Amino acid sequence: MKIDNQTPFQLTPNGQYAYWGETNVGPQGVNAYTNDGNAGELQASSVPWVGSAGISGYFIAGPSVWIILLGSDPDWSAEDNRARVAISSTSLNVDKDQYNRVFDGQTKVSLPTTKGVFTLTGSIGSNDSCTATYQLTFQRGGGVTPDILASSSGW
Prior knowledge:
Blueprint: E1 2-6, E2 12-20, E3 22-25, E4 34-38, E5 41-43, E6 52-60, E7 65-73, E8 82-88, H1 96-103, E9 108-112, E10 116-123, E11 133-140, H2 146-152
């Protein structure tokens, strides 16, 4: 899974859960304005024709924002690949229950905060070996200056 972080905030990994398949690489920290962040890698398990699916979580400090990225790539199945997203100003666990909640969720969500609006989108190809790609953007709210952003995010 790859993430394009087009915000002035760093993304801190907050766990990964493999629903089926196995975790190959966990999510990595993603710096501000990074267009090729590694959100983790899930691979098919040793059981043939299963594929892989799971979620990676991120946290942003100042404002407090939790992000869930879901990727599902079933092998040999009539079911479509999925890239779903969730974003919240309250803590989101990275576990089976969260996976189930997000699985039938949205491909695009927004979260207004006191500093501005975050928008998170997800997409994935249709073939058996594909990468889920996510983009996080931030639109500053009225009265928010770069100095305020910097002082509240720990820079």
